[in-house]
Design brief:
8-stranded parallel β-sheet; 732 residues; DNA-binding; 10% strand; single chain; 26% helix; alpha/beta; Rossmann fold
DNA sequence: AAAAAAT
């Protein structure tokens, strides 16, 4: 059972409804609702009974959430007060609620949260706003799931669904009376950009408002320096400003985008992280950006040593002699402390410095003796050194950093710091939520065996549970970057005591889109803290972080564990594009568990649908699904209720599912590292696995080159639907 | 293109 389920079960009280009137018919004295022999026979209500009753008793009473005081309900009769019951039935209503994100209403009450007033405005950070809003993207989240249509438990919670058109206006509703009035509430740095918001239809008409038409243009306003700087002014939150209607209209000001943005103002030296980086739109986009070496150093990155342009060769510059030379240098560094599998033979956990309790736990988890990568890295981690660890997919990296990390926290703590609200002392970052949760499943029992606590801090899931766990006190945080940043900014996660930081899939965490958040997070951790970087494809791409944050790291990898010695059979099928669907159907129809990789979410979803239509139970995993569905769909494959999962690269790295016998790459990867990670989902723990990559003939050359980089020997052959090659592969 | 925060 996934541990986050454990937590859900052990943690906070669940919402209780129906706490009001006792039900009649209790059988014994002393129970509420006991009527003795006089108890009236239970009668089912007919439609007519119900209709007759609704006049004096609002039907929705019983569904009153317990936070809504009954006494404050409007006194108006039901007929005047539209209730939930008057809303159209589900099927009649328009398909709202596409996004299914936790709504405002699910979040902790405002008053429980710290003021947001003094944190930097959201617009200063590169945001996810750059990608199309969820509602603009095809959403697969709320469709009835393939094969699961019977259950409506998954539909969005009531409060998440819109269609509130006929509800009383916000201010008239009693339930929100106790929340601060708008002007008292903290600033919503995260609200949509002005230009995205609807017009201010409800503010006073212009003629009634003081006109600012004559006001000098923005640029003529008092120069910035004379005004309080947003950065260092003392908690002058937006709370202090006058209520909206009292404020001057901004209608005449230039549109926001024309005004000097926060991003333009000089960097705040006091608060280097979370604020100084350039706005995303100012940064070159991925497509346009020059090769790494040509990019100017990021403006906020002054501490980083200036990059030597030769040191980071362009990605595809294989023919350059200097590249080869440098790569050798880097590889040499990385291989400096290679150990062979033989070196680990006969080593015990105790030999490596792992204590008895943890050893018992590790043994119980099936890790009776250390794997080579664990034998290699654990002593150095325990000695407090920064470590780079490279072990092939499925070689046991999680325990390689997890076990010594827990051991170090133990030693460092001396059993003293178990106070509620203690700050976390270790942080493990992963690129996907599923991976973070999987790591927690491994690390949590190890930590618990010595009385330490972990929590996952990932997005896509309500914050509340995470925050209250943090408040209770946690020693190890296992997280994805976005939510960590969010909570840090909210002041609800303090990383200043983090003495060990692990980057799992470290090379990926250095890719565009991850690197800068990771840098900001690392900046929040304790100065001089230990850093551990692990990946199956650890390469020079991590040099940026290594130079910036690591001190004399020791580098470990395990020799003799290259792809050649792996248990994976690599096949490439040259196919006609139009045959792809058919061939995938034939391949996926086999007995064993099959994981199919598609390049886009839409294609992943389409393929899953297609397989279902062809009578092959399949499910999907990609970023267009809400988190509960992602978790569940992955669970469907793990549990074996479904044998085929179609995923984007969200599932490429780190995800462990037992006994995947076939990996199909419906779209070939662009990067050899992606190939290695995808194929690493099979052939785990010494088992046999097959990877089939479908390509068009036009891609043959690129594929050859990619396989060369991955150091993989694959059989490449043409194939068409119905060919025996395909059925042979499918049967495996 | 995907992923990582919501609204």
């Amino acid at each position: 059972m996934p541990n986050f389920d454990n937590k859900a079960a052990s943690g906070r009280p669940t919402k209780k409804y129906n706490t009001g009137a006792p039900k009649t018919g209790s059988r014994s004295e002393g129970h509420r609702g006991f009527h003795g022999d006089a108890a009236p026979a239970k009668k089912r209500w007919t439609q007519d009974d119900r209709a007759a009753r609704t006049g004096d008793r609002p039907a929705s009473t019983d569904r009153r959430p317990n936070w809504e005081p009954r006494a404050e309900r409007p006194t108006t009769g039901r007929s005047e007060r539209p209730s939930y019951g008057d809303r159209a039935q589900r099927t009649e209503r328009p398909a709202y609620g596409r996004t299914e994100r936790p709504s405002y209403n699910d979040r902790p009450a405002r008053t429980e949260r710290p003021s947001y007033g003094d944190r930097p405005a959201r617009t200063e950070r590169p945001s996810y706003n750059d990608r199309p809003a969820r509602t603009e993207r095809p959403s697969y989240g709320d469709r009835p799931q393939r094969g699961e249509r019977s259950s409506y438990n998954d539909r969005p919670a009531r409060t998440e669904r819109p269609s509130y058109g006929d509800r009383p206006a916000r201010t008239e509703r009693p339930s929100y009376n106790d929340r601060p009035a708008r002007t008292e509430r903290p600033s919503y740095g995260d609200r949509p950009q002005r230009s995205e918001r609807p017009a201010y239809g409800d503010r006073p008409a212009r003629a009634e408002r003081p006109s600012y038409g004559d006001r000098p243009a923005t640029n003529d306003r008092a120069p910035r320096t004379e005004r309080p700087s947003y950065g260092d002014r003392p908690a002058r939150s937006y709370d202090d400003r006058p209520a909206r209607t009292e404020r001057p209209s901004y209608g005449d000001r230039p549109a926001r985008t024309e005004r000097p943005s926060y991003g333009d103002r000089p960097a705040r030296t006091e608060r280097p992280s979370f604020s100084d980086r350039p706005a995303r739109t100012e940064r070159p986009s991925y497509g346009d950006r020059p090769a790494r070496t040509e990019r100017p150093a990021r403006s906020f990155d002054d501490r980083a040593p200036r990059r030597d342009s030769d040191y980071y060769p362009a990605k595809h510059d294989t023919k350059s002699a200097s590249f080869a030379a440098h790569e050798d240098v880097v590889l040499e560094r990385l291989e400096a402390k290679t150990i062979t599998a033989d070196d680990a033979v006969g080593k015990t956990w105790k030999d490596l410095g792992i204590g008895d309790n943890m050893t018992r736990q590790l043994t119980a988890m099936g890790a009776e003796t250390p794997f080579p990568i664990q034998a290699a890295t654990i002593p150095d981690v325990l000695s407090g050194k920064d470590v780079l660890g490279r072990g092939k997919t499925g070689s046991g990296k999680t325990i390689a950093f997890g076990a010594p990390l827990v051991e170090r926290l133990m030693e460092n703590e001396g059993g003293k710091n178990r106070k509620p609200g203690r700050k976390p002392r270790a942080l493990i970052l992963a690129p996907t939520r599923e991976l973070a949760m999987q790591i927690d499943r491994t690390v949590q029992p190890i930590a618990r065996s010595v009385g330490l606590f972990t929590t996952t801090i990932v997005g896509g899931v309500p914050q509340f549970k995470q925050v209250s766990t943090l408040q209770r006190g946690v020693d190890i945080v296992i997280a994805t970057p976005g939510r960590v940043e969010d909570l840090v900014e909210q002041g609800r996660l303090d990383l200043s005591e983090v003495m060990i930081t692990v980057l799992d899939e470290a090379d990926h965490m250095c890719d565009l889109g991850f690197l800068e958040p990771v840098q900001r997070i690392l900046d929040e951790t304790k100065k001089g803290g230990q850093k551990l970087l692990f990946s199956a494809t650890l390469d020079k791409g991590v040099a940026t972080l290594v130079n910036q944050y690591l001190k004399n790291p020791s580098v470990h990898e395990v020799a003799g564990e290259d792809q050649a010695s792996s248990t994976i059979d690599h096949r490439v099928l040259l196919i006609e594009q139009r045959d792809k669907g058919r061939i995938i159907e034939e391949l996926a129809g086999g007995e064993g568990k099959t994981l199919i990789f598609a390049r886009t979410r839409a294609f992943a979803e389409q393929l899953a649908d297609q397989l279902e239509d062809a009578g092959i139970p399949a499910t999907s995993l990609h970023g267009d699904l809400n988190q509960s569905r992602r978790t569940r769909n992955l669970q469907l494959l793990t549990s074996g209720r479904v044998n085929v999962l179609v995923a984007t690269d969200v599932a490429a790295r780190g995800i462990h599912v037992d006994d995947i016998s076939l990996v199909i790459q419906a779209d070939a990867p662009d990067e050899y590292k992606t190939y290695l990670h995808r194929s690493g989902r099979t052939g785990r723990a010494g088992k046999q696995g097959t990877v089939v990559t479908l390509i068009s003939r036009a891609r043959r050359r690129r594929m050859d080159e990619l396989l060369g980089r991955a150091e993989i020997k694959a059989q490449i052959e043409p194939a068409a639907p119905g060919d025996s090659v395909i059925s042979t592969l499918a049967a495996l």
